[in-house]
Write a structure and sequence with these properties.
Strand content: 25-35%
Order of helices and strands: EHEEHEEHEEEHEH
Helix content: 25-40%
CATH class of the largest domain: Alpha Beta
Amino acid sequence: MKILPSSLRERKRYLAFEVTSTGEVNRRELIDELWAAARSLIGDVGTSQCDLWLLDFDGRFGILRCARDKTATARAVLAIIDRVGKIRVGIAVLGTSGTIKSATEKFIQRGSIPKDTVKIDRVQIMGGISGTIKRIHGNEIDLIPDDDNIVKRSNVNLVGVTVFDLEELVKQRANDIPDGI
């Protein structure tokens, strides 16, 4: 069988995405959840037309291949995934590209933030609240609080704060402390 020339092949797009999770996400389970979400959202025929294929996933960043005219559908499929196995996840599409190389270079900054979470103590800044950072994106910080009561009261697994929230908190704490102490 002859290989089709590149001018006759179907065009592909590559979606770079980031997974924010409360635990370690397995590649096989992500693939299963991706297919289940696609079948439930667009059906079997739509799933085959979308031509989804997970090319790369390292536990945090990944590249998903799809048909050129189905990028919006592929984004929707990624958006409806909220669990992988028993782990709650959030998937954010970082960008779309025509080649794997450009998707990796433009959107996936390997090594910018360590894959492992960093334990930080913010007792002085946030009035006793400490947690594990799961993601830093610009001025936004997603963290898992060490205090389980915060998670239970808010009914979410991640708490989002911004740099501006931290600045306001520092100003409030400075006003609360009497002079001379």
